[in-house]
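User: Can you model how nickel (II) ion sits in this protein?
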Amino acid sequence: MIHKINFDLGVIESAPTTVRSLIDLRGYFIDEDSFNAAVQKNPVVYTLSSLEYAQGEGQLHCGLGTLMPGKIGSEYFFTRGHLHTWRAAAEVYLGLAGEGYLLLEHENGQTEFQVLSPGQIVYVPGFTAHRTINTSKTPLTYLGIYPAQAGHDYASIKSTNFRHVVVEIDGLPQLIERNEYITRYLHL
Ligand code: NI
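Assistant: Here's the modeled complex, given as structure tokens:
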């Protein structure tokens, strides 16, 4: 079977595609009032087309993600983010369209903030939670390639979230510690 990216739709039409709308991200954004206002319209936040060619040791899977532009309060739209169930499993991301970032948080707490734009290749080491963030005004499309046995652990992120947030401050995207943002900016 031939698999091809439809860049207009941001999906691989031959692959199963998951749609995540805002209601699926309840509890992830800082500004609950803004979330509750925006969720009335429940916009699509991202889609994920998954190609699972084969299962088992040595096999690879890949996922094409398209993350819409938007914000909840000052916080840019993001994917839920995950660790791999098999923690050692790494992943390679390739930016294809739009402009944004990959937020990487190693289990030791170290945070990295990598540009994800067309042609940009980002290595996600094992033991590292990863989330994509769209800081632009157009959809962000990217491909991720990972071991078939990696698995996705979303629950760990749901319970702790990332230590940093990416928010618009003075018109620009900024990476800032979650607690610092809450203290300094949220209730101004
Ligand atoms: Ni992954």
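A couple of observations from the model: The chain has one domain: 5-186. The chain has a mean pLDDT of 96.
User: Helpful, thanks.
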